[in-house]
Amino acid sequence: MLGRRARLWRLLHATWSVAQLGCLGYIWACALTGRRNRPLWASVAFLLTEGAALVVGRGDCPVGQLQAEWGDPVPFFELVLPPRAAKAAVPVLAVVSVSAIVALALRPPGLVASAPRRTRA
Asked: How far apart are the C-alpha atoms of 108 and 61, rounded to whole Å?
């Protein structure tokens, strides 16, 4: 049975991971449509923050050792994927993330239709 810290960490990590996947999807949507807005740049910043953390952790979660000390030695991706797929998840997601940001940079901003303005009669 996991302790309180380990359970809380898993919940936080799961929330963080779902948010990252949402950001990744949003970046791809904006890259494909040419949309540019504040949520897009926040999403890019979020993924770059994760990328920096993975660089610090040399490809692993930088708080993995602390997680083990809290009583949870199982890497997060191994909770939902077989070990081999879990090990491949980080590099695959890194390539998909970098590709999304490159696609965003290469695609010129498009015109996004907005609601027509109302005029007073």
From this structure: 34
